[in-house]
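pinging the channel bc i need a second pair of eyes. not urgent but kinda urgent?? the chain im working w is below, pasted from the shared doc
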Amino acid sequence: MKKAAGVRYWILLWACRLVGLLPTWFLYHGLLDFLYFILYRVARYRLETVRSNLARSFPEKSAEERLNIERAFYRHLAEVFVDTIDIVSIGRREAAKRIVFEGVEEQEKALAGQDWIAALAHYGSWEYFSIYQYYTDHQVVGVYHPLHDPAFDRFYRTTRSRFGIVPVAMHSVLRYVINKRRNEQQNMILGLIADQTPPRSEASHWYMFLGQRTSFFRGIEKFALKFAMPVYFMHIEKRSRARYRARFICIYDGQEQVEEGVITERYVHELEKMIREAPELWMWSHRRWKHKIPEEHAFRNKGSHS
């Protein structure tokens, strides 16, 4: 089993490297358009989920407006696939063109000598976050959810680490943070993605998100409070194909006394605001609302949590 997974990993890696040798214009026009056609028109990849999510999130929009978002989303999804192929082989100079981080000097100065959390989402091309390692003296740590397929899991760990970040599995991150803070001098940036649906057993808090009661992973809040780590939401704007601009918005300074759920609520607020600016850039193919809020949970309106 391990040997077969290893073979599939090397085939996948070298296939992406070979495809990545093709001209950029071909990757982001010819190949992208082909993948869009396959995903949307042929495979109809999770199309019912996408349509259901859009209808529930934007009831105020017309059917035509939601259809336009749907089409734009699948084109963006195809681009994310191309990004994943291309990031295997692009160099530092090309990587720096893909995403521009605003206010890096100010960010580094303000957080010198501190560990902090980058609060991410499945928005834009989130894999480009790994490029931030080029701009910081901190060690960037990418927390990830291990994939069931060991070949793909190894592939993503390889691509995420090639710019210098350390990928750490979700179930190991607490131990990693404790050991690093105890034994190393270098500060860290903990990259956490929190916009997927948590297991039902962990869905204890519910927030108003895109007009729906929604549960979120609370790892950002737990680490921020346990280790007094500031939290910065990474706001992404797409400039053109494979070109992004990102800035960090402080949602917790590491010292403020806050009630339980407040940090996550601030994350939810920033995430929704970003999605409404360019909804096609979020992963609508996720089954985001597969859990229903239990009747025993109270609920405060106007975006509050229970």
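so The beta strands are 99-101, 116-120, 139-144, 166-169, 188-193, 206-209, 212-215, 231-240, 243-252. and Residues 2-281 form one domain. — does that match what u expected or am i reading it wrong
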